[in-house]
Amino acid sequence: VDAHGFTIMIASHGYDLEREYAALRKFLEHRVDGLALIGEDHSEETYELIERQSIPAVTMWNYSETSRLSCIGADNKMAGTLAAQHLVGLGHRDIGLLFPPTKDNDRARDRRSGVQQILLDAGINLNPNWDVESTYSIADAKFAALRLLGAAHRPSGILCGNDVLAMGVLYAARACNLNVPEDLSIIGIGDFKGSSEVEPSLTTVRLPAREIGRLAGNYLSRSITGDLKNEQRVGCDIALIERGTCKRHSAIS
Predict the structure, then answer these.
(1) Across the strands, what pairs with 99?
(2) Which one in 50, 147, 206, 225 has a CA-CA gap of 20 to 30 Å to 240?
(3) What is the pLDDT along the chain (253 residues), one digit of tens a residue?
């Protein structure tokens, strides 16, 4: 947005929709020119406030054809689908999941939905003990993964809701003296900065963060200046990025 002469004010609400509404009201008190919200999960009060104020607004990260506002993002259900298809295609059937809480987080919920559908189609029953949650923290993810990997029977592959959680699993595997990918395959979602630099480099599903940000910033800026009048719904391409943390699994009979 800098190229259009605007600056950015940022507020984080920790997936608490009441806090998001309070932050939104504070922004409007400061007479901001436009709003960018993350995801599609927002309270009815938030949507109504934006509509009453008739302020240019866009949602980012999750693409939905039925979005109430203009949206620019990616198909997060497809991201989960691609990650699960990769592990299943490599022969993994003992698959663990490490996801953030999905309440008021449509991105995580959609990714998980995509994963669950592929496992169901493949006839794979998810072990409840291998279905764990963690906040967006490498330390918390490592702790959660240590419990999962410390069991007598552990999964051959772990699918993570994003790359931060996958990093935590990598560290947990090292702490358990497990070799990745020989003893354990790990896949993330996001392709965050640093995912290609860790050892081994992380297999993941790339979400085009920079493109989403650029398109959303351009759309919002041009809506504010009056260059754009129509709503937009843009879905950006995603891709499986194969690196060094996944390996074909051969079951031992």
Answers:
(1) 133
(2) 147
(3) 999 999 999 999 988 999 999 999 999 999 999 999 999 999 999 999 999 999 999 999 999 999 999 999 999 999 999 999 999 999 999 999 999 999 999 999 999 999 999 999 999 999 999 999 999 999 999 999 999 998 889 999 999 999 999 999 999 999 999 999 999 999 999 999 899 999 999 999 999 999 999 999 999 999 999 888 888 999 999 999 999 999 999 764 3
Produce one character per residue of 68-89: b if its CB has 16 or more CB atoms within 10 Å, e if not: ebbbbbbbbbbbbbbbbbbbbe
What tokens does 194 get? 């640093």
Burial 187-208 (b: 16+ CB within 10 A, else e): bbbbbbeebeebeeebbbbbbb
> How many other C-beta atoms can be found within 10 angstroms of the C-beta atom of residue 21?
19
Radius of gyration for the alpha carbons in the chain, expressed in angstroms and rounded = 20
**Which pTM value belongs to this model?**
0.93
Q: What is the token pair recorded at 192? A: 């965050």
* Residue type at 9 in one-letter notation: M
**Are 204 and 237 in contact, with CB atoms under 8 Å apart?**
no
Q: What is the largest CA-CA distance in the chain?
A: 67
Cα-flanking dihedrals φ and ψ of residue 135, to 5°? -70, 175
